[in-house]
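Supplementary notes for students who missed Thursday's class. We covered one full example, reproduced here. Read the sequence, then the structure, then the short commentary at the end.
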Amino acid sequence: MNPVNPVNLAYSFDMSVIGPALPTLLDGLWLTLEISTITIVASAILGFPLAVARMSKIEVIRWPAQFYIEVFRCTPLLIQLLWVFYALPALLDINLPGKLSIIIALTAHLTAFMSETYRAGMQSVPVEQIEAAHMLRLNRVQILRHIIVPQAFRQQIPTILSLNVSMFKDTSLVSALGLADLTFQGNILSSQTYRPMEIFTLVAVMYFVIAFPATLLTSYIERRLITSGSRGAQPPTPGVRGTLARLRPGHRPPELASPALKSLLKPEGV
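Structure (token representation):
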């Protein structure tokens, strides 16, 4: 019997390029985090009035809001970046700095998705609660502030965090416009060192180190919401094992505490 030959990789990794490249990549990561933070904060604020306008009964307000949302949801983000970066200054005859135009495009894009998330949360509030608020003679602002917004925001926290993580990753598209973000710096370094595998592996690791804890936090909050909203749910397991189990992706808490309680809630004849 012939011995099995070991697999020989055609590419030989040279990890010595990582050390000199790390400071430059960290500068790019800092710019990526700066753009992501500004975009997320601005869209979180602007998304709420847009969602309210989208639900307005006045057509002059509702239709422009819906048109804006559909335009930015149904067109590619890269096209939006290119349009704002090149076409908007020409149309308005102004000189927009590259960084500012990119932040405007990303904020406009994320605001459309955030507004739909807010709208879904606000429309999920039971109608009975709103009717009770009208009986108590609360005005529309008071109903939004004390009844709709707290419940809607709480229910949509996992979706909001997921959108923010996606936006952090989508900022890699700004490298096509010459902004020195993490991806752009990785592309430059790979051309200078002729070691694209090592450089872009490190770039991917840096994106992962930022995004993965955020996804774990999203899963944890989602499971906490499921547990708090499940009648008779088992209490979470204490200690480190319980915490790791709740952070594990795909884990779902048990809905009911015991088979006896489940049988009580089960409809007869089923």
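Commentary. The mean pLDDT is 82. The chain is about 70% helix and 0% strand. If anything here is unclear, bring it to office hours.
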